[in-house]
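Notebook p. 47: complex prediction with guanosine-5'-monophosphate.
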Amino acid sequence: MKKTGALFIVCGPSGVGKGTVCKELLRVKPEVKLSISATTRERRKGEIEGVNYYFIGKSNFQDMIKSGGFLEYAEVYNNLYGTPKKYVLEQLDMGYDIILEIDPQGAMQIKEKFPKGIFIFLLPPSMKELRNRIISRGRDDEDNIEKRLNCAYKEIDFIKEYDYYIINDDLSNAVNSLVSIIEAEGCRVKGNVDELIKMYKEEV
Ligand code: ADP
Ligand code: 5GP
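Predicted complex, structure tokens below:
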């Protein structure tokens, strides 16, 4: 049965563990694809071009916007981020499930274009723990930590836009929940009715 892949959008406040959870998911479920975003932000120590992001200049980013190369894009903490369209559409067409790890502005743009997308919101066990994680990552000064926490409160207000939530307390539990969501979505009748009926009728 030829199935189109499903599009999963993983969102959540900065520091909640989106990157960590998605990386672990790819380890336990390597058949799932992860979209690599393009960004104008500076490359951080340890980040690899084409693995973490495609690091491009502002004018290249603008050119990609003009040529319709992004599925969505947004400004996040003073930098531009976008999902390259071609790779995502190709993977879906080949039947692969694909994950976009993007901010809520981007997620809402995807919702307009792909109402069948599955929107997942990652939550921290508490705001105190979120603060600890942002601090432990060691990337932000006190001012930026407050900005990220304020943003987190606003983002959580929009949780009704999402289909699922996962509390990222214990990492392996969070990853297991994500795996369960992906597997359950793969067994949906809706969207596969014609293919399912055809598959069994062809046998007769
Ligand atoms: P995000 O991508 O959402 O900004 P990261 O994946 O960079 O967040 O994680 C932020 C920090 O929290 C990192 O130091 C990471 O190691 C830590 N972290 C992620 N998930 C957990 C977890 N389940 N328990 C404890 N620490 C975690
Ligand atoms: P960071 O710079 O810490 O890697 O990411 C900052 C924020 O940008 C995170 O919230 C991340 O989810 C978001 N982000 C990463 N890639 C994209 C993208 O392609 N589109 C959008 N809209 N947000 C993105």
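Notes: The CA atoms of residues 168 and 196 lie 35 Å apart. The first helix runs from residue 18 to 28.
Next step: compare against the earlier run before touching the bench.
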